[in-house]
Amino acid sequence: GAAAMLFVDLLRALLQTQQRFAAYAVVEFLVPVLRAGAVAGLAKLGFAVAGPFLVAYVAAPAALVLVLWRIVARSSGDSTADSFQVAGDLRRFAGWVLVACVCTSIAQNADMLILGLFPISRESVGGYGAARTMMQVGDLAVLSLFSVFLPYASGLNSSKAMARMLRVWTPGLGVCCLLTVPLLFHMDWVMAIVFGEPYAGFGAVLAVLLAGTLVSVVSAPAGAVVYGAGYPRIIALLEGIKLITLVGGGTVLVSRYGIWGMACTMATVKGTIGVLTFGAAVWVTGKATQTTGEPNGDDSR
Q1: pLDDT at 48
Q2: Integer Cα distance of 62 and 112 in angstroms
Q3: Cα gap 294→174, rounded to integer Å
Q4: CA dihedral of residues 268, 274, 276, 282 (deg, nearest 10)
Q5: Other CB atoms within 10 Å distance of the CB of residue 54
Q6: Are 250 and 114 in contact (CB under 8 A)?
Q7: Buried (b) or exposed (e) across 188-220, using 16+ Cβ within 10 A?
Q8: How far apart are CA 41 and CA 198, in angstroms?
């Protein structure tokens, strides 16, 4: 399953670097649909053992990759020297995007794995899992914003335009997030409505998790600028740092403070990486201005 998703991540990376965002959206849509369809079909046929379901769950994204990979490869299939150079740059760029995607995917599930290593009650882990599910709504907002900003940032033809994009969108998103902060004090009500009254006590956990997500929302334009300027290596580095600090800090704090330690670690790490991403975007635009004046760096960086 992990191998299949690794190739799905590579396919996503290639589609992003080719700016084929419609195809990227199709992949994002088809992976869960194919999985759900395969599992539902087996259930309809009356299978009662886990083996076929696991095979179908893995085979669905693998089949999608096999079908679409030839289409992606064909788009850079010219035989000229320039084409080979572009293809090489594309593969290096996609390689760093893949590293970032893999680190992000692991980090998204590391918290539950860490909680499973310690003797924490099922009720607490279940409550944290419910809060985490609601937090992912915020993560979806971050992904949606990034998907909107990335083609826009990639199409800008100067570092000044990218810097202007940061100045325009970052404060606006910051104000919007600040306006939502009072809602964090009412997350117990949200948990009770969505999951039932027994989960109302985990509203504070959700509030802590969402605090870090709000910073990620503000940094969405910065991530798009770093990618658009041709520096996927920076994003891969930041995602690697996020994964390492999340696992290390989470392991230490969960052993002492349980689910609260994990929630605080998640929020702190996500918020810090958001700030560092904004700093990287400012550095990238400033570096381009001081050197060549061009916004797009070498794709291998």
Answers
A1: 65
A2: 26
A3: 28
A4: -160
A5: 12
A6: yes
A7: bebbbeebeeebbebbbbbbbbbbbbbbbbbbb
A8: 35
CA distance 222 to 166: 7
List all residues 6 or more positions away from 49 whose beta carbon is below 8 Å from its beta carbon: none
Q: pLDDT tens for residues 132-189?
A: 999 988 888 888 888 788 878 877 878 888 899 999 999 999 999 999 999 999 999 9
Phi, psi of 79 (to 5 degrees): -105, 5
> pTM for the full model?
0.71
- Can you tell me the distance from the alpha carbon of 37 to that of 243, in angstroms, rounded to the nearest whole number? 32
